[in-house]
Amino acid sequence: MPSPHLAAARTALIAIDMHRGHLDPSVATLPLPAERCGPVIKRAAALFAELRAHGVPIVHVVTEYRDAAEIAANPFWKAAHDDPSKARRGILRHNVAGGPGTEIIPELHDPRDLVVRSKKRYSVFQPTDLEFVLRRRLGADTVILAGINTTTCVLCAAFEATNRDFRVIVAADAVDSMDGEEMHRFALRLIEAAIGWPLGNDEIARALASGRASQGG
């Protein structure tokens, strides 16, 4: 299946949980392996700069809780908190409001970007106003997904976006997972099989260029 043309005016990138709580080993409560943080930040920063140059808006969606009780309301997360075998051990300390973990990675944020801070679970859509932002403020019918984790929040966003009839691109160079390389690759294969297009940075740039050419730009 060929890669789609991307019209910048109808495309938005959703940066999912690209905050210090995952990507800064000095403060992260649910960290990506330290050796993977720098590379994915660098690749994402390059992509974001390319998209901004084309006029594609960036929307950061950030998980943030009032307190640990909001996290513990999820039975699995409550059980995983004290389980040393789980990647999500310690989750009840994750991204409580006012902590450094909720800060977006500086290299990825620009004053022109939009920020949605009401994400509470794996979903970027529920209970946030993201869909309103995408459709009413930005006029987007295509989303490019970047962020952490490929296996949970990115995958969930891909399912929910396609169920809302958005065209779904996953920025394969700008996603990663604390669940390991095998699960990360599996999530990308699942998305490619049933949901949308995992594309590298160069492929996204070409899709934007071809979209501009097809519109006579």
Q: Secondary-structure element order, as H and E?
A: EHHEHHEHEHEHEH
SS content category = alpha/beta
- The top-level CATH class is Alpha Beta
Strand content: 15-25%
Largest sheet features: 6 strands, parallel
End-to-end distance: 25 Å
Shape category: globular
How many E-type strands? 6
Runs in which pLDDT lies below 50 for 5 or more consecutive residues are: none
CATH architecture: 3-Layer(aba) Sandwich
* Helical segment count: 8
Tell me the domain tally.
1
**Strand order across the largest sheet:** 3-2-1-4-5-6
The proportion of residues forming helix, as a percent range, comes to 25-40%
Mean pLDDT: 96
Corresponding CATH superfamily: Isochorismatase-like
Cα radius of gyration in angstroms: 17 Å
CATH topology: Rossmann fold
What does the secondary structure layout of this molecule look like, with pairings?
Blueprint: E1 11-16, H1 20-23, H2 34-53, E2 58-63, H3 68-72, H4 75-80, E3 114-119, H5 130-137, E4 142-148, H6 150-163, E5 167-176, H7 181-194, E6 197-199, H8 201-214
Parallel strand pairs: 1-2, 1-4, 2-3, 4-5, 5-6
What does this molecule look like?
There is one protein chain. This protein is about 40% helix and about 20% strand. It contains eight helices and six strands, in the order E-H-H-E-H-H-E-H-E-H-E-H-E-H. It has a six-stranded parallel sheet, with helices on both faces. Helix 6 runs parallel beside helix 7 (about 180-195). The longest helix is centred in the N-terminal third of the chain and has 20 residues, at about 35-55. The model has no long low-confidence stretch (mean pLDDT about 95).
